[in-house]
Model the fold of this input.
Amino acid sequence: MANSTDSDPIETAEWLEALSSVIEYEGSERAQFILEVLLAEANKLGVTLKGGALTTPFCNTIPVTDEPTYPGDLKIEYLLEAIHRWNAIVMVLRAKKTAGGVGGHLSSYASIASAYEVGFNHFFRGATSGTPGDLIYFQGHSSEGNYARAFLEGRLTEEHLINFRQEVYGPGVSSYPHPWLMPNFWQFATVSLGLGPLQGIYQARFIKYLENRKLIPLNDRKVWIFAGDGEMDEPESTAGLTMAVRENLDNLIYVVNCNLQRLDGPVRSHGKIIQELEGVFRGAGWHVIKVIWSHHWDPLFAKDKKGVLQKRLDAILDGGLQTSYVSGGKLRREFLCGEDTDLQELMKTLSDEELEMFSRGGHELEKIYAAYAKAVAHKDQPVAILLHTVKGYGLGKGGAEGRNIAHNQLDMTDEQLKAFCQRFNLPLTDEQIHNLEFYKPHEDSPEMQYLHERRKALNGYLPERLAISAPITTPKLETFDAILQGSGDRTMSTTMVLGRIFNVLLKDANVKDRLVPIFSDEVRTFGLEELFRKIGIYSHVGQLYVPEDKEQLLYYRESEDGQLLEEGITEAGCMASWIAAATSYSSHQIPMIPFFVYYSMFGFQRVGDFIWAAGDMRARGFLIGATAGRTTLEGEGLQHQDGQSLLTAGTVPNCRSYDPAFGYEMAVIIQHGLHAMYEKEEDVFYYVMAMNEKYAHPAMPKNAEDGIVKGLYLFKEAKKAEVQLLGSGAILNEVIAAAELLEKDFSITANVWSATSFNELRREASMLERESRLHPTKKIPLSYLETCLNDQVGPVIAATDYVRAYAEQIRPWIKSSYTVLGTDGYGRSDTRARLREFFEVNRYYIVVAALYALAKEGAIPMTKVTSALKKYNMDPNKPNPMTA
Done:
């Protein structure tokens, strides 16, 4: 209750009686309307509620009278749950015993097992041909339970379980949900906390997007998200809550496993996390269902006419609830009742042993079923279910159950294991317990038949990842001929080139409908606002207003079947949408082609965890790092200038990353990516840089395609070249200019190479180096990089708009001297020309680097270097950009 005292109990009773009468005779919807009107009027009159407006009493949302009859065999389902619990424990203990320190989790699955059991037996629908299944984002740290169930279902063998967390040799299973490692089992990578919830929310919206664009039929699929209450502190866990309401995502059910504990202790020791989360979800506009207490509490609440029990439970902090749970019946009675005679009277008929049986609703199948049934039937809102559970439930109250140490429990004694089996009525002998034997009933046993019958009724087993082959015929390179021919005298940026590429793709019958352009904002900044008119911005309600720029050709056009996703200023949300589209070939059996275009500085740096998860999930699509480079974004300064994302991109094994300078390079890379991902169906994704700097683009040199894709090609060949100049992206034009200065001012000729990807050059060279090392007597071909440069004359100079470590990667395979120029240090605001001078990557510094390398080799005197510094008015004592 909001107030601790009631100055007029009779008046209060009359109001409550009136409310009950409305509900009884006119229904809950009428009662809700009246309450909303009263609250609105109270607000007008200056009456506000003290913080409790978004929370309800700390009790079950669904009254006992509204609970449906349980449709399953409770005895069998509790036994199946117990078997899964046992096998999950055995899996972790055996791995620890035989393999050593591979780890595992006992307590997380122990707290969520009942929630999964109800879902698997009655709600989670599998996918069959022509019938898409539900999408389940399992709590990452509870994977042991998924493996235990799959073992009983016959989808995993005992050998798989024995090799839990041991995948290098033989059949094992991964620590957490990893589609890369278990591509036929796990659908979503969820263990990095917060990523699963945000992915799930945007996945639910992506289903609506596909439906509204008529790419898939309307369906009643549900997206289920399972997360821990401690996980809800991650910003990503709640970042999409309001979006889910704006989009009316009634296909979304968010289940929070509220065991009240983080890894070290209570989530909210001095508060109530369930009440807090209720306020968060309800405040965002979600329908919230709380499952707090088991059926044991129902008679007490019914007898409690004064509300003293509810008042006490509302007041107890989570730290106290935890202490109360582990204290035992007698101490629990003292904790609950204290000196309150009304509470003592209420509980006097209960023995201490009976009181100790009082549990939390998240471990009772009937209570969970009631919540799930209400959630599935709810319309026009996403639903959040808050399950009150115990961390380590069932592991022994004398052990870690409900205690701060629960997360770190990785062992159990024989006595604890025996107590576990007795508690859950498992028919195991002392010898089986001591030997840590997995338990699997005979296939013709009632429980095994029930297990398979329930999954058959729900269309099959989960989790299961279906990646059905569905190749798309993608455009040939000649389709992009207008781009390959260059821009003539016209100057343009590579983001503008990207717009031209979109135009080509939107005219191709095979790919136009599959294209999913995604922006966090600033479509106009990138010069791509033509997409507004061409394909429209997706809005599930269409455009309910007249945009102020309606008279403009490129006005802000929203449409129910719009193709472009403009998510607002949320790179994380955009990545979640991108992942949904990039994995659509497996989640929805329809491959989509997403392009997420964003400030490159806000890409790998800000949402690198999502990008790593995308790689794990075998995502296919394009990430476009726009306004790329540390010196291309004039005036924006330190936090906008990207000098490192390409280096980070190289750490993701299945990410193919490129830094094209010219339009034809970008066209070749994107065409190659389309072919690789959508015709050959390779599980890779592409990170392609784009700049907003405008310059003329030449036509593609003959036979350059292969080199562009591999990462290096000879852009301009000089007669009897004395030095090799490598450049990429924004700095390639400076390299070209440096070659001209070398010849004009110093009569030195240089080859100019366009290095579209140092990452790809390093990848191939290191793979061949390994092959040679492990097969010392076998003749291994040279890497492509070596075939390009090893026969060339003179030192090699590389300059990029990124940190030096990016181009340094290829040093081991270059026989000549190798000098790298890059943009190490913090960015700052200024013009492009001054920034390039400051970071020492402009044409003059490239010339000096080439002269110095030649002088060190004795090809020219050092005085030429000195004269170059003077000629170009370069200050050798200027601040070092690495430390300035």
In short: The first helix runs from residue 9 to 26. The CA atoms of residues 9 and 15 lie 10 Å apart.
